[in-house]
Amino acid sequence: MLLNLGINHKTAPVDIREKVAFGPDIVVAALRGLREQAGAEEAVILSTCNRTEIYASVNDSSVDALSEWISDFHGIDKSQLTPYLYAHTDKDCVTHLMRVASGLDSLVLGEPQILGQVKDAYQVSVSTKSSGKMLDRLFQNSFSVAKQVRTDTAIGSSPVSVAFAAVNLAKQIFADLSEQTALLIGAGETIELAARHLHQQGIKHIIIANRTIEKAAALASEFEGYAIGLQDLPAHLAEADIVIASTASPLPILGKGMVESALKARKHQPIFMVDIAVPRDIETEVGKLDDVYLYTVDDLETVIEENKQSRLLAAEEAAEIIEQQTHNFLEWLKSLDAVSLIQSFRTQAESARDEVLERAIRQVENGKNPQEALQFLAHTLTNRLLHTPCAKMREAGSNGQSELLDAADKLFAIGVDKK
After folding, report:
1. Which residues does the annotation mark as catalytic?
2. Percent of the chain with pLDDT over 90
């Protein structure tokens, strides 16, 4: 049986999620514990800031056994955790993982980072030999589904965060961001996200300006940029092709005069500006200047709301893909029973063949005519192979089990005329 047990941003507050997180320093021990103590044959642990989930292939283990193991491992009372847990088995487990990998279960619908996190979790399981045939197939299929969802739907094409929307607008104005310089004013979460998105888009030059220069320097170092204080803005503004501002300042930081001076120094090369702050960091009059493209948070929110609707429509298309791929995986799962049965049937037949062949060879060695030995081989082997099926069909006929006879007719492709 496939089993998924977890909590996420929808079911549990952060103070609960952080208590059951599996960091890199403990996940290997946790995987070992799942197999040795909780009875999981195979296991993968996915732990991010928004979710902690266990995917397992189990025989006898139950949801209660796994939830008790999580509680014991993290040293928290089971009753404290149980109200926030969800569980999925077999088909629901398959569908859930495919939704997670495709970004349909994320805080931000369609966000791409989760696929990398799922892949990392799976690789840890592979490296510790915690995954096997079942989970290998499940996770590989989920990666393929996530790729198909990205390719065949618009789930990830429309930005739904302020930072992402700002960078996406910059891409529309500048054909090649790698040749541009970005000046980011502030050092909070939104600015950090903007820096990350810009860096992923290949921008080479990032300047972080902040009131506390130490904080700016720490952020700039992540993206090979450099930091300046707010008082140094007039000296560096002319370097910037892209300006994104998000501080908590009660008064504007960039005024019309400062921007005019920068444009003059740039020989009126355009500047793209995004003011995410409330109150505003950039004076309204700046937007009236030639060669300045100024967007406010309200402009971005309009774009984001439209994009959310676009992603919801894409999510419906993605759900159809996932439903079909879940069906395909379950068909493969069912085939495993047939594979085992076929192997046993073949082993049985080969054993009978070897025994009868050995008897026929001994007859030839003892001087019997080879043709008679071959007839003996064919007759005896046919009887040996057909004895049990024929006996069972006679028994089914005596007991009125017509459905079993129909199955035998279909299984052996006999084609009985029932007229």
Report:
1. 49
2. 62
